[in-house]
Design a protein that fits this description.
It is a single chain. The protein is of the alpha/beta class. The protein folds into two domains: about 210 residues, Spore Coat Polysaccharide Biosynthesis Protein SpsA, Chain A, CATH 3.90.550; about 90 residues, no CATH class. Helices cover about 50% and strands about 20% of the residues. The chain contains 14 helices and nine strands. Strands 1, 2, 3, 4, 5, 6, 7, 8 and 9 form a nine-stranded mixed beta sheet that branches. Helix 10 packs across helix 13. The chain is globular. About 40% of the residues are buried.
Length: about 300
């Protein structure tokens, strides 16, 4: 095969990233650098849905010209950015990650191997998330609150849950999906249930690893936790489920304790980072109260514009 033939061949992977971070926004440069240094020689393309359109965008164009930037208004949601990026993708596998996630050196190779190990018909593979920013107790608290469930080790094999920012899809699964299913919410909540109901398994392995590297301020994470929780609560029940909404509102006072218990339990069963968890408990307690308040507002008033404000 000539060099021209290789250039005309579609890449193995299309990596979709939404450029949305309002703090620590330069982390995406680390993501792109890590992709350049991947082991295994796999071909890939990077497509970035950019609602920032700022100095970081210009740096990407200058330093990483292989990345394709698609410009969007600031109110475009992450699912909309990902769907538009998907429209441009040519890869056999569609990878979704975020602008603050730095992949391990064998990330693409581990995804390729995971698809080989997975059962026939597997729709998607996903992996674990490690903390890449841990200077302060707040760093650990934000990590545990957001990604504690996906701390290694994760399930090896068939799974009902994959991390929405460390997941790769067989391209074929998008053929029969309506656009509203792609833009209406995060794919782990809108698309994954459809795949499972259709008998397309999801495959999980700790070998597929990314590092969460966003350094949040307390105020930004608190806002984002509230916004995401309102989005979740607002879309949890349909218009004909008023009774269920009322029950959920009435049960909200016990939600912080339940959320706190689940967070602590899911980290303790990993048998790792126990001292880091203990130091983060006071901040986690605040975050779960904000989490519960966000869900309450969502149950009562709906999601509002929460989806477009999530980063």
């Amino acid at each position: 095969m000539t060099e021209l033939d290789e250039q005309l061949q579609p890449p193995t992977f299309s990596v979709l990233i939404g450029l949305v971070s309002t703090e620590d926004g330069s982390r995406i440069l680390e993501t792109l650098e890590a992709l350049r240094k991947q082991e295994g020689g796999h071909t890939y393309e990077v497509i970035i849905g950019d609602r920032r359109n700022d100095g970081i965008s210009q740096k990407i164009k200058k330093i990483y010209p292989e990345a394709k930037l698609l410009s969007f208004p600031s109110h475009a949601s992450l699912p909309e950015l990902r769907t538009a990026s998907l429209d441009c993708a040519k890869g056999r596998y569609i990878i979704v990650t975020e602008d603050h996630c730095v992949p391990s050196g064998n990330w693409l190779d581990s995804i390729a191997q995971a698809f080989c190990k997975a059962p026939p018909g597997t729709a998607a593979v996903g992996g674990c998330v490690e903390n890449g920013v841990h200077d302060t107790t707040l760093d650990w608290a934000t990590f545990f609150c957001e990604y504690g469930h996906f701390l290694a080790p994760v399930t090896e094999g068939a799974s009902m849950v994959l991390p929405g920012m460390n997941v790769a899809y067989d391209r074929s699964i998008f053929r029969n999906l309506d656009r509203s299913q792609l833009t209406g919410g995060f794919w782990e909540t809108t698309v994954h249930p459809i795949l499972l109901n259709a008998g397309r398994p999801l495959f999980s392995t700790s070998s597929v690893k990314v590092f969460h590297c966003k350094k949040f301020s307390f105020s930004l994470f608190a806002r984002q936790r509230f916004i995401y929780s309102r989005y979740y609560g607002g879309r949890r029940f349909g218009r004909g489920q008023l009774t269920q909404r009322i029950i959920a509102i009435a049960a909200t006072p016990i939600l912080p304790a339940l959320l706190f218990y689940r967070l602590v339990k899911q980290i303790r069963v990993k048998n790792r980072l126990r001292s880091e968890l203990r130091s983060a408990l006071p901040i986690l307690a605040i975050f779960v109260i904000i989490w519960a308040w966000g869900e309450l507002v969502g149950y009562a008033l709906g999601p509002g514009d929460a989806l477009a404000r999530i980063e």
